[in-house]
Amino acid sequence: MPLDHPQDLTIKDFKIVGQRPLRPDGIDKVTGRARFGADMNAPGMLVGRVLRSPHAHARIKSIDSAKAEALPGVKAVVTGADFGAVKDGLDDGMLDVLVNCMAQDKALYDGHAVAAVAAISQTVARQALKLIEVDYEVLPHVLDVDAAMQPDAPVLHEEAADESVPAGFSKNVVRRYEFGHGDVAKGFAEADRIVERRFKTEAAHQGYIEPHACLAAMGPDGQAELWVCTQGHYMVRNTCAALLGMDASQLRVTASEIGGGFGGKTTVFIEPLALALSRKAGRPVKMTMSREEVFRATGPTSSSSIDVKIGMTREGRITAASGELRYQGGAFPGSPVEFGAMSAFAAYDVENVKTVGWDVVANRPKQAAYRAPGAPMAAYAVESVIDELCKQFDLDPLSVRLKNAAVEGTTSSFGVTYGKIGLSATLEAARAHPHYSAALGPNQGRGLACGFWFNFGGETCVSLNVNADGTVGLSVGTPDIGGSRASMCQMAAEELGIAYDKVRTVVADTASLGYNDVTDGSRVTFASGLATIQAARDAIRKLCGRAARMWGIDEDAVIWEEGYAKPAGGNAGSFEPLSLAEIAAVSARTGGPIAGHTEVNADGAGQSFATHLVDSEVDPETGKVKILRYTVFQDAGKAIHPSYVEGQFQGGAVQGIGWALNEEYIYGEDGRLQNPGFLDYRVPVASDLPMIDTVIVEVPNPGHPYGVRGVGETSIVPPLAAIANSVSAAAAVRMTHLPMSPPRIRKAIEEAAGR
Amino acid sequence: MRYEAPRKLKRAVALLSAESGVARVLAGGTDLLVQLRSERIEPDLILDIKRIESMHAIAAERGGYRIGAAVSCAALGEHAGVKQLWPGVVEAATLIGSTQVQGRATMAGNLCNASPAADAAPALIAAGATVAIAGPGGRREVPAEAICLAPGRNALEKGEIVESLYLPARPERSGDAYLRLIPRSEMDIAVVSAGVSLSLDAAGRCSAARVALGAVAPRPLRVEAAAAALIGSDLDEAVLAVLAAACAAACDPIDDKRGTVEYRTEVAGVLAKRAAVIAQTRAGGAA
Ligand SMILES: Cc1cc2nc3c(=O)[nH]c(=O)nc-3n(C[C@H](O)[C@H](O)[C@H](O)COP(=O)(O)OP(=O)(O)OC[C@H]3O[C@@H](n4cnc5c(N)ncnc54)[C@H](O)[C@@H]3O)c2cc1C
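Above: query sequence and flavin-adenine dinucleotide SMILES. Below: predicted holo structure tokens.
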């Protein structure tokens, strides 16, 4: 049956896919009805709060919570000791999550949780925190990635490094990765020119507007419910069950609406504490992080130090490329340096290429994913050096990239051979765009950069229920962080041949649907979309079966066309086509409810590439940058809902602008975070930005029935580089340290003038 | 925590004076509420002055304007008379925060909050504004530069409330301007700022000037040497260089999350030069 070969439907005259219907969650969100993490309440609910370490690195000699426990209104206090029973059974990764959620013998960063209380009010909880006595032995700390690698640096963990790290390194160096092919020495020998530079980027936070929040309720029988703002409630369930020593089946997790995540909500922080407090207190416990807690104790991205060396011929052909990437990922192993080292040169077809990545720990909060984790910094370093070589040879930066661009059949620097990809198409689109040839004024510069992201498929489970009134309920298990419910409705409606508003998509809780991976890796429109389409096809098969029964003919003799069951040709008999609604209306008499299901571990996600073009102006006397014009060209494979694809493009560009210009974690000498708030952690505000123009390029992904490629992450890969290239041109000095805040730019201009 | 919103200034002063615990005046609340929510302060009494009608008035007085302490920056920004007479002061008020913040924030609150980076302060100091203070011992009037003593500490005594600000009359051919450097375009705190007010004689030469800087010392600074450089000149390049040097010499900044000593010192001069040229243009002089 053709339905079993999704590729056959790749090129299709879409009716609903590609349109821009209103999102089903839109009205609730603009009227304030939508329920986010902190919007759920329960009878008898307590307030949970966390006591956090004021020290960047300290041994916890003792914790005395007796006074806090004696305070009227305090119902439970939890410390590291409360997790002692489960600790031994956890694998290293899970143990790190636990120790990050609640310090055990050491506080590893400013803001590290050391105790938590549940009390009848905010005021009592606040007083209780003040009554907990923690005896710290303050230890020397280290924050900078290069400093943490020094042999004499303060050591965070005695035994976190694995065998990939050669002998002689600081114990803070915990992993080494290497990728590449060819012979870089030979390649550099063939170059007409080689540029080698070191770059640094500071840690940035995802900056989601909604702080982490949850409501946990555990009964005396051990059955528990958790309402939580997260990108993946199955991950929350499995992690919390492990950390609390529960059966997964005893914990039902429901994902709230989410006010931004960007990767930062792909792990747990307060959730296990809320459950532990609820278990101890025997009452529901609500926990809400303050903005300060979000900055100090959730998962910003790595800061990095990167050396890149590229050799090029005077015609613009890259002969060899190498990179050494050092990322600190906070107090635990797991910085995204592996992805950085894999993706650094992934946009180019390079014969001789090698990257080495070093994962380093430092006294900062454990990093979490941030859109295309690890890639933006790597692209910044690589694209800056390419830009510099183009300038030195006086070559057009776009043509040089086109000349070296990875295409179908290119073996990437990380080993994969590409199928159909769209990098060249995005470059061609940029060249054809008026932005590329627009005039620039004094102190203005234009920057161009390309970016790549792997994209991911992963475990996905979907149910599609056909209701007796001809409507459809679709249950997915991937929290909607960018309009995915609208896209799912579109894909289901497209397959079934019914109207968009006849389909309602909900994000089901963990008890209602099989396991789903987290909403990450730009996977949802791809994987949940693919599963939705397959579930719809499963339902169609069943609808055809019911029609066959109604007509009294063979199941194989029924086909589905444009929303109707029809007899397959003359031999099948002559019957009036039956709509989905007509079949559904009598389903009770033809075999009961009709539903389609998919369980899949999806692969074939299809890489997405982008080219970004940006103009900026630098005030040479103050170093202040204004972004004048910005255009994103990205391959979406197939844009299911173009508005939300454009939204991802624009959001990636804007977060990149923040990271490139002003966002950074600033620490004092004492190792304490100086700017844990939006006043001094400077995300761009609306008036800082030009309209971000977008051009959707569509090179269909053969791995998806409609050709979808994920778009959520690639969009943040080129901006750091594109903006740095633009600002470097405008300021007439190469900017090698992000963010390019006004003082850094002034300093660079001054140093260049002094040379 | 007690909340009071009296209708009479006298009652407000009485309530404040009688409070034995920590008391805070509430104007727009755009500083106060942030401090409350972040648990930096836990006052026993919050005294809201917005119900006191006289505090909302902008009144012409002796050729200048008296501005009630509860007048929002947005209201000030829409007052044609003040805008015409003191455009630099109004531009400072309407730089604060954002449109929403300006709907609440007051200039008096900005001064009383005593941040060295407060935007209204340099403009008011350059303007020679005075501040009327009501207290248990009666009413006193002090220059704007006397309010901020150190970061977070103002010159008000127990029971005192700022009642109004006074912007004086000024001669013909006068202009003022305020500039600040923030890395973004709004919703930010000045890394460094400069206010300049000047008057020109019939020949276009500067006959009087006042220069003030923000965020370069523990309190907003009035820089008399910088003003002296302008007086008698027509603000040519050389004079502006002297102005910038005088500003740099007056700076006593810190390195912090918002900027370095070096950067603040350098950019203070740049902003003062630019503000002086704008003020000169507004006064009808050569640009
Ligand atoms: C988002 C945001 C952005 C901001 N941006 C800026 C900015 O760009 N520039 C800037 O300078 N500031 C900024 N601020 C700070 C603040 O808005 C200003 O300082 C504002 O002018 C304070 O005025 P208010 O009326 O809101 O003061 P309030 O918060 O009501 O009071 C501030 C302090 O002054 C005291 N006080 C107020 N009025 C009186 C009075 N009449 N007599 C005695 N004491 C009094 C209060 O007790 C309190 O201690 C910002 C604040 C926010 C929240």
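Chain B touches chain A at residues 38-39, 98, 181, 183-189, 191, 256-260, 262-263, 266-267, 270-271 (CB under 8 Å).
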